[in-house]
TrEMBL record:
One of the protein's GO biological processes: glutamyl-tRNA aminoacylation
UniProt name for this protein: Uncharacterized protein
Domain Glutamyl/glutaminyl-tRNA synthetase class Ib catalytic as annotated: residue spans: 2-152
Any Pfam family matching the protein: tRNA-synt_1c
Taxonomy, superkingdom: Bacteria
Similarity comment: Belongs to the class-I aminoacyl-tRNA synthetase family. Glutamate--tRNA ligase type 1 subfamily.
GO cellular component: cytosol
InterPro entries recorded: aa-tRNA-synth_I_cd-bd (IPR045462), aa-tRNA-synth_I_codon-bd_sub2 (IPR020751), aa_tRNA-synth_I_cd-bd_sf (IPR008925), Glu/Gln-tRNA-synth_Ib_cat-dom (IPR020058), GluQ/Sye (IPR049940), Rossmann-like_a/b/a_fold (IPR014729)
Aminoacyl-tRNA synthetase class I anticodon-binding domain ranges (all copies): 171-303
Entry keywords, A to Z: Aminoacyl-tRNA synthetase, ATP-binding, Ligase, Nucleotide-binding, Protein biosynthesis
GO molecular function: ATP binding; glutamate-tRNA ligase activity; tRNA binding
Organism: Aerophobetes bacterium
Length: 339
């Protein structure tokens, strides 16, 4: 319905395994049977599944079932022109909610990804797009996830949908709730000398863009490459434990220090502190993580990796293998010395 009729030669359809040796069905068989039993009439999925569609169509035919309509949506692309990757980008809607974007503005922005309204209209309500939606208007090429465009749309909603009288209430609900402040006050009570120091000490819990510093991220002559691997391993450790809170974060710092053979306090904690706060001191870090939240915590480590130059696919493969083996010490390197 988006790309029109697509024909695939038989020679390009491989001999797919449908049932594994343990008797369980593979994804392709389970997917088709499940969709049929649920009486699915339209399958909307990303372009990366286009190559699997001939297999699914043949299975429908083999069972004598009516094929559903297939719509393959354009992929969301990152700033590098490649598919938006969870490994490199914040991809959770919760991240954008926690960063202060309005739900209606975010939905408006997402609907623009690979789609265009009549007269190139860019600001519209959900009811408007429902009333006017036409799958023929969905683009066939990848859609660039343009954060600057998202910022502009969100600003329009802030100006036009949130009154001046209601603005502080919305900001307070977003980031300065009584519940959040009750968690934060014990962390700063004995650390501030004046009320004016509150924001100076805690700004990292409210702002979206931390001013990263290469020197702080590479303590004790740690190389940028090692710091990036530490950041990536922190994410992996918390993902494995499914805990991006205080306990999971603290355990991750110890897991990473052990795996890389690095000093926990002098290296790993300093990298973690600089990643989360942009500094090497501040409120208790582990307690602060519970306030910052999962999505922002994860995004901060991704930002550190990007800031320091990024990890190539080859080096990521090596790191993955070493991390899964529990020993990354051979990958640790010192920063090159001048002269």
């Amino acid at each position: 319905m988006i790309k029109g009729r697509i024909e695939t030669p038989w020679a390009d359809v491989d001999d797919q395994v449908l049932v594994k040796s343990d008797g369980f069905p593979t994804y392709h068989l389970a997917n088709v049977v499940d969709d049929h039993l649920m009486e699915i009439t339209h399958i909307i999925r990303g372009d990366e599944w286009l190559s699997s569609t001939p297999k699914h169509a043949l299975l429908y035919d083999a069972f004598g079932w009516k094929r559903p309509q297939f719509l393959h949506m354009p992929l969301l692309l990152g700033s590098d022109g490649k598919k938006l990757s969870k490994r490199k980008n914040p991809t959770s809607a919760f991240f954008y909610r926690d960063s202060g974007y309005l739900p209606d503005a975010f939905l408006n922005f997402l609907s623009l990804m690979g789609y265009s309204m009549d007269n190139d209209k860019e600001i519209y309500t959900l009811n408007e797009i429902i009333a006017e939606f036409d799958p023929k208007k969905v683009g066939s090429s990848g859609a660039f996830f343009d954060v600057k465009k998202l910022d502009w749309i969100n600003q329009q909603y802030l100006i036009n949908e949130v009154s001046e009288n209601n603005l502080w209430d919305r900001i307070r609900t977003w980031g300065f709730s009584d519940e959040k402040m009750a968690k934060l006050m014990p962390l700063i009570h004995t650390r501030i000398k004046t009320f004016g120091e509150f924001i100076e000490l805690c700004d990292f819990l409210f702002i979206n863009n931390i001013a990263l510093n290469e020197t702080l991220l590479t303590p004790k002559s740690t190389s940028k490459e090692t710091a990036m691997m530490v950041a990536q391993a922190m994410i992996w450790s918390m993902e494995k434990s499914e805990d991006f809170g205080k306990k999971g974060f603290e355990e991750a710092t110890h897991n990473v220090a052990k795996a890389f053979g690095l000093h926990h306090k002098k290296i790993v904690m300093k990298i973690a502190f600089a990643t989360i706060t942009g500094r090497h001191q501040g409120p208790p870090l582990f307690d602060s993580i519970d306030i910052l939240g999962k999505e922002k915590t994860r995004a901060r480590f991704l930002k550190t990796i990007e800031f320091l130059g990024g990890i190539s696919n080859k080096k990521l493969h090596i790191l993955t293998k070493a991390w899964n083996g529990g020993d990354c010490s051979a990958l640790v390197s010192a920063a090159p010395q001048d002269g």
